[in-house]
Each structure stands twice: as structure tokens, then as C-alpha cells.
Please model this.
Amino acid sequence: MSVKKFAIFGCGGIANVHAEAVLSLDDALLVGCFDVVKENARKFAEKYNIKVYDNLDDILNSDIDIVLICTPSGTHADIAIKVLNSNKNVIVEKPMA
Model:
């Protein structure tokens, strides 16, 4: 079984639910996060002992396998399309668009 590396995009309240879900999986590692509010990302990263990425492109150019999108709902589709176009897997907090 190969371990999948996850990053969370958007570090608001719902991101904690997703982080805990990833942490509960035997074949997954939560390794990074990004938020447009840098302080939110810093606090989230500190809580989960993970890396803070400077932007989505840095995540997409890393060895992350799956990006969890936990941003406000109106932003989901554009981010998901960009992630998918980079050949990464994506999980989107509802609604998609």
C-alpha cells in the first residue's frame, strides 16, 4: 500500500474536520497547507505540524498527491480545475460550484 500525501487549501474551521479525517487513515499523510490569510495557514500548520506553502502553484509543483479544497464555496471550481490540470487528485468541500 502506498502512502498518499495530502495538502489542504483553505485553513478555516472546516479544514480541521478534513485534517482529522486524513490523520485517521493508515495510508495518508497530511503534509502541507495554504491559506490566503497567512496567519490562518501558520496556525493550522503549527497545530498539525505541517508545512505552509506560499501559494497553490507551490503545492502543485511538490510531491503532494491529493489537494483538499476547503475554501469558500464560490472558489471551489476554479481551484479544482487547476489542481486537476496539474495531474493531482482533488477532494472538494461542497458545493463544487
Observations:
- The radius of gyration is 12 Å.
- The longest strand covers residues 28-34.
- The chain is about 40% helix and 25% strand.
